[in-house]
């Protein structure tokens, strides 16, 4: 049987007739999201390896290892407690001020690490992106896994401190802590996917994110109470402030692990607000994944 070899000219002519397909974006709508989830699940072992690599590279050749994940939040806690709490007198209006701060810092640090690392994750793994095809969502998700590990370390410290100081009671209020964690994971992952994709095309985004994350920390009721913000903000801006997913997550964590006796006036309808923010966050996550899927086809060329 004779074998006919295709000439380069014939191959080029045949390929010109084929419809153009974007890498990773062939299926639109919810079907594309489901297909992406299946791809990620099929590569779950690689996701674990990338998460482990992220953690090891962060503390490579350091004697303290993962204990360094506590250095920054504990230093922040000490500075804020002394400067804001004692020197400026904030602690006089908030009981158990150290737990109040650390509860907010713990959940906000998780959000900050997810968004910060997720934004630069595609560029940081440009070598893999250019050489082999795999679902690129894995890289921001590896940043989420790494941030979760650091969160667990800080969370354990929070639980121990809350037990020692007597601010932790076991009851239904702990569900606010779970809700806060879900809020941060949903919104953090959505923003990390969106900014991770956009950062490939506009590298200034990763530097802008650092500034915005700093502003968001001060715009959250971590070092002050939401009532203090309510006293100075106009009505429309206060509604935006108290319905921010970050504000709701911080308040939820404080509700769960801070002393009930020192709450004063809780935010009205906190549980309902968190549920609505979570539902909107899921829609935002789906939208961010579709934008990521549309943009990832040209990642290799841009990198």
SSE inventory with pairings:
Elements: H1 8-17, H2 29-42, H3 44-58, H4 71-87, H5 97-119, H6 121-124, H7 126-131, H8 138-165, H9 174-201, H10 205-218, H11 226-230, H12 235-242, H13 245-257, H14 270-295, H15 299-302
Helix pairs in contact: 2-14, 3-8, 4-5, 5-8, 5-9, 5-10, 5-13, 9-13, 9-14, 13-14
Task: List descriptors.
single chain, 303 residues, mainly alpha, 15 helices
Quick overview:
The protein is mainly alpha-helical and 303 residues long.
Write down the domain tally.
1
Task: Give the strand tally.
Answer: 0
Helices and strands: which structural class? mainly alpha
Strand content: under 5%
Could you state the order of secondary-structure elements as H and E? HHHHHHHHHHHHHHH
Shape: elongated
Taking pLDDT < 50 over at least 5 consecutive residues as the criterion, the unreliable ranges are 20-25
Q: Describe the largest sheet.
A: none
Query: What's the overall average pLDDT, rounded?
Result: 81
Radius of gyration of CA atoms, rounded to a whole number: 23 Å
Structural write-up:
- The protein has one domain (28-294).
- It has helices at residues 8-17, 29-42, 44-58, 71-87, 97-119, 121-124, 126-131, 138-165, 174-201, 205-218, 226-230, 235-242, 245-257, 270-295, 299-302.
- Mean pLDDT is 81; it is low at 20-25.
- Helix content is 71%, strand content 0%.
- It is elongated and about 85 Å long.
- The protein is built from 15 helices and no strands.
- It is an all-alpha fold.
